[in-house]
Structures
1.
Amino acid sequence: MASSFFFSLVLFSVSAIFLQGTLGEIVCDDLPTEVCSFSIASSGKRCLLENFENNNGKTGYQCTTSEVVVERMAEYIETDECVKACGVDRNSVGISSDSLLEAQSVSKICSPACYQNCPNIVDLYFNLAAGEGVYLPELCEKQRSNPRRAMVELLSSGVATGPVSSENIHGAPAPASI
């Protein structure tokens, strides 16, 4: 049963790539959920797997277009090899920088198999890390030389601290909630 699912997935991926070549365009909303995550539309925007509740009350999944534009990359469906090498899950809904706090996740992203061969996934995690005030190349270098120390430094950097301050970026108190 698993081999027939794998065969179907491979056949579908090949068909999607062939269809992309003949039509010349990737539209996230037209992609099957199995290849949605870590894909980039012809417009350069990332594809995003989202869930919804259907009429029967069951959770369904759909591929949508995010507003995030990837510079220097478009019309791209991530390979299964990169998904495996980077330790990411194509079936997860959304993505979080929380994975940067897990030593095993950082190790996979920073591994040569991922970091040197999977620019799409590395770009995504580079931006997630930057949003948390972390420079991914530096984190990967520290992770390669001393994994335990890299995680201690990351945790002590304030990236993983508690809730957001009540002051905004200009130093003024945040508006009161109603």
2.
Amino acid sequence: MAPLEDHPTVRAVRARTALPTTEPPRPIDATWLKALALECGADDAGLVAIDRPELDDQRADIRAAYPPVRALLSFVCRMNRDAVKAPARSVSNLEFHHTIDHTDEVARAIVRRLDAAGVPALNPPSGFPMEMQQFPGKIWVVSHKPVAVAAGLGRMGIHRNVIHPRFGNFVLLGTVLIGADASAQGAPIDYNPCLSCKLCVAACPVGAIGADGHFDPSACLTHNYREFMGGFIDWVETVVESDSKTAYRKRVADAETASLWQSLAFGPNYKAAYCLAVCPAGEDVIAPFLQNRAGFVAEVVKPLQQKEEPLYVVPGSDAEQYAARKFPHKPQRKVSGIRPTSIAGFLRGMPIVFQREQSAGLNAVYHFTFTGHEPAEATVTIRDKTLAVQTGLHGTPACAITADSDRWLGFLRKERSIVWALVRRKVRVKGPLRLLTAFGKCFPS
């Protein structure tokens, strides 16, 4: 074999230009970068340095995905507002899918242009596909929302969506990771476009958005993302558990089966996203709301509230009670909730699945000691409908639970009996058993 220096590829490159050095690229002009994003199809763009405090909780994940990253280019792509507002969710979902595809194409075009200019860059997806092997943990490469807020592209509304000052929440977000510094970066805007009108609260069929600003992510995930992730898993297990087609039909209506086929064939469909549909915030969006608020509610909000549709809720959850009270004309489908696959996932996921109304009247400190395959210690405090999870054992517990980690996960996944685990002392409780029962009510699955 010929020496490397004599290889035709090596000779061609050396004849054309010097090999790249390990020195970081010079800062790129921020104005040029933003203009490039608009030229590639974005509607607005901003920049954030990787060392910004707003990225502290995801910096390690971003660098793991793309070690050279030094700056992040955040951008927005507008959706067609009337499509998102349509009670016919096929219309709104088509708009979501097309805009997601467009957002990914914009990011890809930006990276191609940067590569041509000798600037290293990476374009993670704006939505799906994601790193599903990590589900139910963090499955995304970059959290687009906090990056967009830090870049000055909007602020988070009460519905936990980014509201752009001009385009409102009718946008989808993209991020490009750049292996070079930018000459300037954005800063959060000095006001929140959210109007605190709480129409999103009124429109959400499962009560995921509280009037006091509380957000129940598990309620949103269970219903709105029914045909994604955990909802799809629940459906597959329903098929497996059904002894016959008649038994299956009793549990799943034909229309729901057809809807799942449609999601598999054309892309998973959101069941609601009504919070986006009814939001009147944004300079380009607000006029109809200002001109006739009652008319806006009648035309946009009421049709979504009155629509007859199945609501997917976890039995014993706050969403189940809320939906029955507020939307009795919408039939409920009782489904399984998020279930952890590790003790770390159990502890990390507790704030997501915690049901504050189910915790009413409970004020207690719990110590958890897990042994076996995944040892861990944690303190869980439930007080005044709030939850706090700490690593390690702190303070004096009202109830202390020691459990084999595999047994505990089997109990959470409804594969093992907690009673049998207590009898065999695979789970040991020091303190009133009623506190363990009360704890379980706060985390229905």
